[in-house]
Amino acid sequence: MPHRNEDGASIINLNNAKIVQKNFTVLSDVNLHIQRGRFCYLIGKTGSGKSSLLKVLYGHLPLKVGSGDVAGFKLETLRAGDVPNLRRKLGIVFQDFQLLTDRNIEKNLKFVLEATGWNEKAKIDERIDEVLASVGMKTKKHKMPHQLSGGEQQRIAIARALLNHPQLILADEPTGNLDPETSNDIMTLLKRVALENNCAVVMATHDYHMIQNFPGEAIKCEDGKVSIMNTAELFE
Ligand SMILES: Nc1ncnc2c1ncn2[C@@H]1O[C@H](COP(=O)(O)OP(=O)(O)OP(=O)(O)O)[C@@H](O)[C@H]1O
User: Fold this and answer.
1) Where is the ABC transporter domain (predicted)?
2) Is residue 5 scored above 80 in pLDDT?
3) What is the spatial distance between Cα 2 and Cα 73, in angstroms, rounded to a whole number?
4) CATH, domain 39-55+79-235, list 3.40.1190.10, 3.40.50.150, 3.40.50.300, 3.30.1330.40
5) Other Cβ atoms within 10 Å of 176 Cβ, number
6) ipTM of this predicted complex?
7) How confident is the model at residue 8 (pLDDT cuts 50, 70, 90)?
8) How far is the CA of 49 from the centre of ligand 1 (A)?
9) Mean pLDDT of the chain
């Protein structure tokens, strides 16, 4: 298949990529290689390009300059029809949870499974129970989203991201709406499920307290460029 590239152990590869919003270049000369199973922050000031970079990685913004691939999908030749297939390989988690408010948790998860080709009821029920158990939310299956706290809704959003066994989770400020204690819980959860599923995580965040609590590797967006650093450098 011309639109796929299964080479190498990296789940994300960008080579001399330019990240563009409308006609405005947000980031240029982006060279990024993230191995399978790695956890990496995405940091940088407001407007530095974190969300734009994530959008290119999940096929929401086209890669018009440079080359790259995510989960085996070539980005520079990605067609609209390939995007759902790429998204099936990814788990995406947003700041505002984005649960469907008109149905309960079980039906939120069922909706995603059915939309991605699952059709056997027993297997659907089993997978929903598995992901809810892995985020400690099995008893909340019949609750509506508004009956859950922000932290619980984010746990459900993480469970939803895990449904199709993703190789990569892209998280855009997943703790942005949560208090510090709940943020730490969500971070612990994300790190654990990533490890258990051998899943890479790229997580955009502004939260330096959390970065200090959970040090690691970071992709930094600054002055239109991207670099890799260790978060310990932020606190020297
Ligand atoms: N839809 C859009 N159309 C045009 N320009 C955009 C659009 N979205 C973002 N931009 C511009 O692209 C640049 C990068 O924005 P982006 O949202 O990627 O930054 P960010 O680092 O995620 O910021 P924040 O931390 O505030 O979420 C900004 O200058 C922004 O104004």
Assistant:
1) 12-236
2) no
3) 9
4) 3.40.50.300
5) 15
6) 0.95
7) low
8) 6
9) 93
pLDDT of the residue at 197: 87
Q: For a pocket test of ligand 1, which of 19, 20, 23, 24 has the largest count of ligand atoms closer than 8 A to its C-beta?
A: 24
pLDDT of residue 199: 93
| pLDDT on residue 4 | 44
Q: Is 216 exposed, middle or buried (0-12, 13-18, 19+ CB in 10 A)?
A: middle
C-alpha 128 to ligand 1 mean position (Å): 35
**Ligand 1 center from residue 74 Cα (angstroms):** 24
Closest CA to ligand 1's atom 1: 21
The average pLDDT across 180-184 equals 90
Residue found under tokens 């706290």: 149
> Residue 44 CA: which ligand 1 atom is closest?
21
- Distance of CA 6 from the midpoint of ligand 1 (Å): 31
Atom of ligand 1 nearest to the CA of 221: 21
**Helix or strand holding residue 87 (H, E):** helix 83-88
SS3 state at 219: strand
Chain centroid offset of residue 225 CA: 21
Q: Give the distance (Å) from ligand 1 centre to CA of residue 43.
A: 13
pLDDT beyond 90 at 34: yes
* Share of residues in the chain with pLDDT > 70 (%): 97
